Every structure is written in structure tokens, then in C-alpha cells.
Task: structure prediction
Amino acid sequence: MLVSVVTPSYNMGRFLEQTIQSVLSQDHISLEYIVMDGGSDDGTVAILERYAGRLRYESQPDGGAPDAINRGFESATGDIFGYLNADDVYLPGTVAAVVRAFEDNPDAYVVYGDARWIDEQGAPLGRYPTCDFDVEDLASECFICQPAAFVRRTAFESVGGMDPARQYTFDYDLWLRLARRHRFYHLPRELAQSRMHRDNKTLGARRRVLRETIDTVRANTGYAPFGHVYAYACYLIDGRDQFYEPLQPSWWKYALTLPLGLRFNGLTPGRFLRGYAGF
Result:
């Protein structure tokens, strides 16, 4: 079973080589690796040239990570797709373990495993809060760690791939769209490490990430759950990134969540009020 891995990259040269090596050192023989660089000017191309013949790459301006991933997979030939950001890494044996999981679960179209957060130097920061799959829980929290997730080509194509309009939550949006059609399988094994640092898109544009999360869930489910609205309200008040600076509850934040939640859930106010009261 051929696995195609795509890495979208832009000015991540300080991390990219470790990412590349984590893919190329996998012990699964049938592996295709494609790096889609957005025209970096930080030495990325020189790194990629050192691995010519072991991976394919292009370096030119693109429409952001979802556009780069889509174009990478359009040129891919694998049966299984995985995408790994240029600052994340696979653990040894990841691809082989995922292929076995797909073979053992032929009705599964997405296989995701466990993962850990690491810092800029690669030191562990904690376990990603992964859990067994539940479609309703997925709407309340993205418990799938993107670098530890793989999808069958047929499933990826059936939902039209990534939505290029989602610049921050394109992976979450993909899982929500796939979940309406296909079975997910949780592989209870640590597969990847997700790097957290100040230049990370998830932390570097926190307000836009939180707002796009609400829009993404609402577009897919027709509802913005309390948890996502509350996180947004907290950020509006204190500006904490809610990772290095953990969320700090307060009555002011809880109070702001009510008008925001009713605005985001104009067609289902009663549902939000029930969630708000039950918090």
C-alpha cells in the first residue's frame, strides 16, 4: 500500500530538515514524499536540494497551506495520504503502523493516533488530548492531532480535499466533513510530535484561529458549541494564547460568552442557552 506524505512549507528551514528525516527514515518501503514550499527565502531550497532523488519538491508562491496540500496530493499516487507540517515530525515506525491499521480495518477511511507537543528544541511539552472517535465530541473539540492522522485517497477526494478558504482550521474542517461520510479509527499508539512555538500559526494569530474555529464548526454542524465561544470570549478579554498562557476562567468571560453565543447561534438560541446553563 503506497503512502503519500505532503509537507507544506514556508520559511521553516530551521525545522524542515528534522521533518524530512523523520519521513525518509520510516521503515515502510512504499512511501512517496512531496514538499510544497511557498517560495521561502530562508535557505529552505538548499535543504530540499540535498534530498533530491529521495523526495519531490517545488518552491513557488501559493495560496497558503491548504492550497499547497491540495496541489501536492493532486500530483501524488498513493492510496493513503498524510500531511506533515514543516515543523512537525513522525516517530519511528509510524507509517508502517498506520498501514497495518488500515489493512486490519478495511472499513476505516481515517486512521489517527496519539501525539505529543514539543517545543522549539524538541523537548516534550505534554500529551495531545486525543481520544476515541465520537462525531458529536469532535464538534466540541478537535481531539485529532493533524500530524498523527492519515486518510484514504478516496475519502480525501470524496469531500473535495482541503478548503483553501480555511487558512487556520483547514484540518479541523476536513475532519468534520469526512466524519459525515466515513468511519474513523483511533490507533492507540504515539505516532507524531507537534511543535509549538511563537511562530506557529495556531498561536501566532490566536484571535483569527478562535474565530475561524467557530465559523468552521458552525458551517459543518449548524451550531457553535459553548466551549469554542467561551475560548473566544476569554481571548477577547485577556489576550492569553491558551497554551503557554493557560485559559483563566472568570465571571466576566462567562458573561461575555452569552451574547456572543446567541449571536453565533441566531437560528438555534435555545440550544446554546441549554449548553450555557449546563456549563
Observations:
- Residues 206-221 form the longest helix (16 residues).
